[in-house]
Amino acid sequence: RKTSERVKWGQKRRMEQGIVFGRDLLGYTVQGGTLAVNEEEVPIVRAIFHKYANEGKGIHVIARELTEEGMRPKQAAFWSDTTILRVLRNEKYVGDLCQKKTCTPDYLTHTKKYNRGEEEKIYLKDHHEPLIERELWERTQEKLDRRSTGKKKTRTEKGTEDKAGLGTRYWCSGKLYCGVCGNRYVSRYKNLKSGTRYQAWRCYKAVNHGAPKRDK
Asked: How far apart are CA 198 and CA 8, in angstroms?
């Protein structure tokens, strides 16, 4: 544990000094702890940002077009939505450097995981030569954030699984109650013999335990 703590402390000090830890990425090579521009790959990086922010194309379309244009990714076998998104979200292309995106909580297993607040990240602005303008970078991030928020909203409106496992969540979820037993109503889908599928709201108790008997 002590050795691990000393190594982490030393790495953090070097990161704060601007030493780069990591491997080559599209547009850059890591040489002696510094980022050097790979001129052959710069046009690919700029094309991705231009297609997304200026031409308004989605990441799936961009991946397909890069493949059709004969451009190849750096670390992957082919272009995918995830590969494109990683490029658009990588702060290195605007000249900044964020390190400690991953961390190693267990000093025995050395298993890495995404750093979600377990350790402090180190962010250095204007650290190296950028491949795109900051204005383009900011527009790209704003657009990504808008689309991400829009997708979350759409999923919520369509309905996501309730934590209690009582069906899907809609605007009226938790607001409809059975007039017989008082249990809340939940959304259920039913397939008809005709092949059509419809949605209905039913009493939760009736769905799971059978319909309660009504008073005569």
From this structure: 57
Locate 209 and state its tokens: 């335990």
Q: What are phi and psi of 175, to 5 degrees?
A: -115, -15
Angstrom distance (rounded) from CA 130 to CA 36: 10
Within 8 A by CB and 6+ apart from 107, the residues are: 1, 4, 5
Task: Give the C-alpha distances (Å, rounded to integers) separating 148 from 56, 143, 144.
Answer: 15, 9, 6
Q: Give me the amino acid identity at 78.
A: F
If you search the block for the tokens 């999923």, which residue do you land on? Answer: 155
Cα gap 79→75, rounded to integer Å: 10
Residue type, position 136, single letter: L
DSSP codes of every residue in 95-124? T-EEE-SEE---TTT---EE-SSSS--EEE
At residue 158, φ and ψ (nearest 5 deg) are -75, -30
Are 161 and 168 in contact by the 8 Å Cβ rule? The answer is yes
Identify residue 104 by its one-letter amino acid code: T
Full pLDDT tens readout for the chain, 216 residues: 888 788 778 888 888 888 998 899 999 999 999 999 999 999 999 999 999 999 999 999 999 999 999 999 988 889 999 999 999 999 999 999 998 887 776 666 667 777 777 778 889 999 999 999 999 999 999 999 988 776 655 555 555 444 434 444 455 555 677 887 777 777 776 777 676 777 777 887 776 655 544 444
